[in-house]
Amino acid sequence: xxxxxxxxxxxxxxxxxxxxxxxxxxFVFLVWAGLATAxxxxxxxxxxxxxLAGEGATAPDAYLVSSTLIGEYPASELAARIxxxxxxxxxxxYPIRVYRLTYRTRNTDGQFIMASGxxxxxxxTGQALPVLSYQHGTIRPDEEGRAPSYYRSGSEVxxxxxxxxxTGYMVSAPDxxxxxxxxxxxxxxxxxxxxxxxxxxxxxxxxxxAGQQQVTLNQKHFLxxxxxxxxxxxxxxxxxxxxxxxxxxxxxxxxxxxxxxxxAFADYILKVDKPLSFLSTYVWVLDTYNRVYGINxxxxxxxxxxxxxxxxxxxxxxxxDRAALLFTPAFQQGILxxxxxxxxAAFRANDIxxxxxxxxxxxxxxxxxxxxPFFNSKDAYNAMHLRGATQVELRPIAGGNHFSxxxxxxxxAYAFISQYR
Length: 421
Hints:
Blueprint lengths: L1 H9 L2 H7 L2 H11 L31 E10 L1 H6 L15 E11 L5 E11 L6 E7 L21 H10 L3 E5 L17 H21 L4 E10 L1 H16 L8 E5 L5 H10 L7 H14 L6 H4 L4 H7 L9 H4 L2 H8 L4 H9 L11 E6 L8 H12 L5 E6 L8 H13 L3
Helix pairs in contact: 3-16, 6-7
Protein name: Alpha/beta fold hydrolase
Organism: Hymenobacter fastidiosus
């Protein structure tokens, strides 16, 4: 194992990727596939306009509220967490300490609330640490325990992300609003502003914690995330570069399979005449935007019966797989004919594909993704290049769907950010 370890830390990562076997692929798929599982939660009826971090109310003197040591895990234990893939254990280099942080962030109404996340710190590196912000994917409301701050066996933070931390990154993994310390609030699903601000404020809390614990950090910040985590990663990258580049310079980011072009995605859903397995996810998105942007329409405006009554009682219930059956003609026509100005504005507020990033950014996406279509990443790549971005790459995963692509995403995204470390 010692020889393998030396090879892994000396070879270029693309060479390492070629040596990882099918058992590793199977493991990564099983762990990460949950990121793309779509579902939804109940709604709160407050009308609120979203604000990004730093807008509106005065920021607190400190973001970090408390920290709790969850545990310290030796390298041998981390390697043993992946018994199906012995070679994957060779990626493990350092023991890690895992902490649960609670911190201040703003809810969608601009008010400060308590949020939480996990902080993974490698031990004994002997050098200043780069920071990796990891944005998790969709978490079902009945699987709230998968949020990073719970750090439970079987979750991606407990396994794959712990291995990433053990290679020498301090990993900041926010729960987002709606999980952990903020679980009393509805999760603002696929709402760019809150995903970005909750992630940024977790980074602030992590930096404060590092100062208290005398953990030396360098100025490198890397961003990773898949599915909703890919959308959150893109939103965070945009926020950091456009408003907080001096505070948190982005070194490189690698979002995967995010719904970056919400307006085009809405048109696609309402136009396509075929079964769509993800319509229940769109119900959650509509509920979030209807609430957060103060539109506050009744369910019967969006959904045909009997699903309007059914969804009002249980937003988590099953829906038909064809848009024409689920959505009312009035709603469909309002979007496609461009007359529903309120919801169209909400979609535009969450179009995060058309801007000019400066740091290296790689867009990973399966070309056969029928859950979050590939055009989301392609549109982002094209729009960014038209704006003069020179360090944006489109990394198609040929033939991959939303679930089968997670293995290649994980390996290639880590390889991508590692070259800038």
